[in-house]
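Quick illustration, no need to memorize.
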Amino acid sequence: MESDLILEVKNISVEVDHETILKNVSFEVRRGEALAIIGPNGAGKTMLFRALLGLVSHTGELDWKKGIQIGYVPQKFVIDKSFPLTVREFFLLKSPRFWMPDKGFIAHLEHELSLVGLGKEILSRPLGELSGGQMQRILISSAMLNHPDVLLFDEPTAGIDVGAEQTIYTILHTLQKERGTTVLLISHDLNVVYKYADNVLCINKAMICHGRPKEILNPQELSRLYGGGGFYHHPVEEKI
């Protein structure tokens, strides 16, 4: 339905220092959809996210539905292990009264942590001591604090082990189904795309294909996209 359309992109192109990073990419996203964005390294996937977030100049049309709130989880969040910032202090930076947060904010924070499988005891831990999987959960909770309509994830499981990967993707799937959150994620793992994505956007500087994973991710399109390599997969169950 037209009323479900929350993002419409028509012929988006991005140029940086006279180099074309993206050319004539077009797609639509509907409320509650999970869209995976795949392509080889250097294909322009992160640059597309930056354009969607309004962080880079572009040509073409990019229209978010009015009033849509967007959350973003970056691929990496690097912090010095010795930096004296606890998880609680990290979250309080997002509080309107960070110097004296009210009980409502703390209760809301603890609820969001519980949704990603973390207890309130983690609030006292220094950020630098967290594992990669724990840090990703913290970033997801941070992005979800204001209950955004859309979440953008740039390779949300990069650098963490396979077991933690599955936990992160299960969390994303739960948010999508239980809250109706629209999810856009960049991934190199085709099994994850098959399991969690309703649609997939294939780009390599330009758009190669767009549609349902089982319908368009055939050997011919993957060869056009990757040239015989550039993706990986590990065993997962089919999309639920």
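The two ends are 23 Å apart (CA to CA).
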